[in-house]
TrEMBL record:
Role played: Cell surface proteoglycan.
GO cellular component, one term: cell surface
Keywords for this protein: Cell membrane, Glycoprotein, GPI-anchor, Heparan sulfate, Lipoprotein, Membrane, Proteoglycan, Signal
PANTHER family named in the record: GLYPICAN (PTHR10822), GLYPICAN-5 (PTHR10822:SF19)
UniProt record similarity statement: Belongs to the glypican family.
Biological source species: Pundamilia nyererei
Chain residue ranges for the region called Disordered: 369-390, 477-557
The organism's taxonomic lineage, starting at the top: Eukaryota, Metazoa, Chordata, Craniata, Vertebrata
Protein name: Glypican-5 isoform X2
Signal peptide bounds: 1-32
GO biological process, one term: cell migration
Length: 588
């Protein structure tokens, strides 16, 4: 018998060939009718009692229907729905958390720098008064404290008028200058606390005893500090947008498509296969259609933030405005001394010094108490503990460069988010599509945004209310308000043209082939970072540490418990192929 089948080989050789064929068929047959791999992968999804031991033929499935036996049940599909929502939102949060960390860090860093500059400027002004104008320094220091406390509050977003606070400071300084510098023989303690002091404070803007120095100081501080304040508010606005993105709602159609993409292959025992790249992009762009609507407002926002940073730090404008306070006050007091006789004559007429009573008694604010302001001031009066001016300027310049280079990485975040979530997809070999295993995805790959989804073959996107619509409207309003408040920003070049060496790509648009869409993010978009591990510096690893695998990767491909069986299947397939070739050679 064996010689009839194997005329060219001996009986021993034929026996081994037939044994090998029998063994391979048995192993493959056992593997085909077992749900062991599916049960192993399901451990991270739901209770194992929902997974059948062997494939069932009467499974009443909603999402993963296919001809033939299945390793899935309706209860498993329910678990898959919860799993895809949890995993997708977790992956989105991993990326937004990185951006939030960067923004929050720079909110604190810029505020610390602002406060250091204010403290430095206050120390210089206090030392000027103590050294050059000692007769009024003790009474003037509380007003200095109040001025810089108000400027500090303004930079932190408080409802403060910089020009109003500067003029209020000079209003309080004028009675001191009048009684201590122009007319030192007058009892200052009586004059400043009387109705005459109120009159001097009230008429100061009209008689202009400090020349134009008060006006110039107010304008320079308002301009420089206004840009710094708006930058701080802009960073806070970025945090609001990221928070809204983290809790974006996934529609029922989205969840259905995610289950098909991520888990329906398991129902056929294929726990290791990856989804096709174009298929994944269509699913993610359909799921994130509303979120992608933030792309254009976000790009506009990042450009404004860049320009605000340049306007604040360009030619050290912020530092010079703060440190110029000492010079403005010095020149203002010298002007008062120089024009003392004229000022005295004007005050005599307006405030009626001959009777000791003032003709105008409507002060705008009460006099500041020295004891309370001195104790509440957040800044030390002595500059001895401050860093040098060169150090502060160097720190601000370094902070600006680091911030702009970091921000540049996130300009296209909302347009690139679907691609980031599809990084584990596969386009190099056979992959999983909606209906099964294919060599490549042949469907049309659509672009980002709600309008492009009308042609999405994988996700039906209906006209539903977007959960991020409020955040989008708020961001657009903030962008418009900023442009109206600082029209000079429109004349500034973008950061790319100022030396970053990078060009912003347009947002991803609709295309007809998969490669074209995936290439749409090339350029600056490719260096968007992986989500960092908890406790690790963003984008860096400590010395001696090697980069770790990203724990937030979407679990499109699960390797749990599958390596052993997969290797057996591959071995048996190779053995079967080899045996077939041997039989073909023997028989023919």
């Amino acid at each position: 018998m064996s010689r009839g089948i194997c005329p060219r080989v001996n009986s021993v050789g034929c026996f081994w060939i037939l044994s090998l064929l029998t063994f391979a068929v048995k192993v493959i047959d056992v593997d085909t009718y077992s749900c062991y791999e599916v049960r192993t992968a399901f451990q991270q999804v739901g209770p194992l009692n929902r997974v059948p031991e062997t494939p069932v033929t009467d499974a009443d499935l909603l999402f993963c229907k296919h001809q033939g036996p299945s390793c899935c049940t309706r209860k498993m599909e329910e678990s898959y729905q919860f799993a895809v929502k949890r995993e997708t939102l977790h992956n989105i949060q991993a990326y937004t958390h990185e951006i939030k960390h960067v923004i929050a860090f720079h909110v604190d860093a810029f505020q610390d720098m602002f406060q250091s500059l204010l403290s430095f400027s206050q120390g210089h002004l206090s030392s000027l008064l103590e050294g050059s104008f000692p007769s009024l320094s003790q009474q003037a220091l509380p007003h200095v404290n109040q001025l810089f406390s108000s400027l500090s509050l303004y930079l932190r977003g408080g409802n403060v008028s910089v020009e109003g606070e500067v003029h209020h400071f000079f209003n309080n300084l004028f009675p001191l200058a009048y009684t201590r510098l122009i007319n030192p023989g007058v009892e200052g303690s009586i004059m400043v606390g009387s109705k005459m002091g109120d009159c001097l404070r009230m008429i100061r803007p009209d008689i202009n005893p400090f020349g134009n120095h008060a006006v110039v100081m107010a304008q320079k501080l308002a301009g420089a500090l206004g840009v710094g304040r708006q930058l701080g508010l802009a960073l806070e606005e970025g945090l609001v947008v990221m928070n809204a993105t983290e809790y974006a709602r996934l529609s029922k159609e989205c969840v259905k498509s995610l289950v098909k993409m991520m888990y329906c292959s398991h129902c056929r025992g294929l726990t290791l296969i990856k989804p096709c790249g174009g298929y994944c992009l269509n699913v993610m762009r359909g799921c994130l259609a509303c979120v992608s609507e933030l792309d254009q407002p976000w790009r506009r926002y990042t450009r404004l933030v860049e320009k605000l940073t340049h306007a604040m730090a360009e030619q050290h404008s912020l530092e010079l405005a703060m440190l110029g306070v000492r010079g403005h006050v010095n020149d203002a007091l010298l002007y008062t001394e120089l024009h003392g006789p004229l000022i005295t004559a004007t005050v005599d007429k307006v405030c009626d010094l001959s009777t000791g009573e003032a003709t105008h008694m409507h002060p705008t604010r009460p006099e500041v108490k020295a004891s309370t302001l001195t104790l509440s001031s957040p800044f030390p009066s002595s500059p001895s503990s401050h860093p040098s001016l060169e150090e502060l300027q160097g720190q601000l310049g370094h902070l600006k460069r680091y911030f702009l280079n970091t921000l540049d990485r996130y300009k296209s975040f909302f347009g690139m988010l679907p691609e980031l979530l599809c990084e584990v997809a596969n386009d190099e070999s056979t992959c999983w599509s909606r209906d099964g295993v294919v060599k490549s995805y042949t469907g049309r790959v659509v672009g980002n945004g709600l309008y492009a989804q009308r042609n999405n073959p994988e996700v039906k996107v209906r006209n539903v209310e977007c959960t991020v619509a409020e955040a989008k409207e708020r961001l657009e309003n903030f962008n418009t308000d900023t442009e109206e408040m600082f029209p000079e920003l429109a004349e500034m070049d973008d950061w790319e043209e100022l030396g970053s060496g990078k060009r912003e790509e347009g947002s991803t648009t609709e295309c007809d082939d998969e490669d074209g869409c995936q290439a749409s993010g090339d350029g600056q978009d490719k260096h968007l970072p992986e989500p960092s591990s908890a406790g690790k510096p963003l984008g860096k690893h400590p010395e001696g540490d090697s980069p770790q695998e990203n724990p937030y990767k979407p679990p499109l491909v699960k390797m749990i418990g599958g390596s052993s069986s997969a290797s057996w299947t591959q071995c048996c397939s190779l053995a079967l192929l080899f045996a077939g070739l041997c039989l073909q050679w023997i028989l023919f």
